Amino acid sequence: MAVSPTSTAPAADIPAPRPTAAHFATTDSLSAYWRFYWAVAAAQLTRWLPREPGCILDLSGPDFRSAPRAVAAGHDVVTLLPSVETAPRRTLKLVNGHAPSPRHRQPGRLRSVVGDSTFLSGFASEVFDGVIADNRVLSQHLVTEASLAEIARVLRPGGRTLLCVDSVVLGMALLAEQDCWPELSYAPNADVLLVPWPDGTITRCFTAEQLAELLTDAGLELEWVKPRTVLSASTVEMMMDGDPRALNRLVEMELKAANSDDYVGVHLLASARKPG
Question: H-helix or E-strand containing 248?
Fold first, then answer.
């Protein structure tokens, strides 16, 4: 039977709402995509972690999974938490601002301290083999230069950092959704791009070139920078809806695609090393 122009289409024929940029601020939306996202993040972290056990500082927050994975890989991890409520029962006791000595630590131990991840004043210089600043933490620290300087300070010579930030691609999408067209016209050439989220918070967004420059200015040597994910949320959702077993294939595709120089992802991932 033909449907007249004034008829309402059946619910099954109405397309699902398309993902918006704001969905990338919460992990309870686009559930299939976020399953894929966390699987990619886990694979990238596993590839990045040092082969030899070391002492690693994790700044990524309690809702990220980097610390348990690093512990499972044999590393001692100090995780910095925003409040006592988010901390495990056992906390790390600093001795003169130092992390545990390699001579006394047991491989695979997770310890926590409560403090501000912007300024790492509770830690002495050159005490960590690695620093993980994932989960967009440096985009939420608007003076990112100060945070990177602190990361460089606490790294031992030869130590490395892995970090994830919001990209200018995401920032421009957020501005467009908020009808901030004058601001959007200046965004691609801005030295510093600060973008308001719908929840009132502010994020700092970066191009790959800006991120590389900040790392260099902090005294770190850039190893690589790439998008965390290249595959779109709609593509991932469609493939996983059609085949729930497609997750592993999608992750493999993503790890290969992200090795390109195409910085189209909403988040940028970078690795850098402290000289020496």
Answer: helix 247-257
For the CA atoms of the chain, what is the radius of gyration?
A: 21
Predicted confidence (pLDDT) per residue in 121-168, tens digit: 889 999 999 999 999 999 999 999 999 999 999 999 999 999 999 999
**Using CA of residue 266, residue 167, residue 80, residue 202, what is the dihedral sign?**
negative
Contact 194, 142 (CB under 8 A): yes
Which amino acid belongs to residue 245? R
Alpha-helical segments (H) within 22-160: 31-48, 66-72, 137-140, 144-154
Q: In sequence order, what DSSP letters do the residues of 139-154 get, joined into one string?
A: HHSS-HHHHHHHHHHH
CA atoms within 13 A on the CB side of 24: 24
| CB-count exposure of residue 178 (10 Å: 0-12, 13-18, 19+) | middle
The tokens describing 56, both together, are: 């690693």
Q: Residue 103 above 50 pLDDT? A: no
Q: What is the pLDDT of residue 261?
A: 58
Question: How many CB atoms are located within 10 Å of the residue 221 CB?
Answer: 12
Nearest to 153 by CA among 130, 121, 126: 126
| Unique residue bearing structure tokens 């077993």 | 245
Beta bridge partners of 172: none
Structure tokens at 185: 């016209």
Q: 122: which 2 tokens?
A: 């509770």
Mean pLDDT of the chain: 81
Instruction: Output the CA angle 231-232-236, nearest 5 degrees.
Output: 80
Is the confidence at residue 89, as pLDDT, over 50? no
Dihedral sign of CA atoms 86, 89, 90, 95 in order:
positive
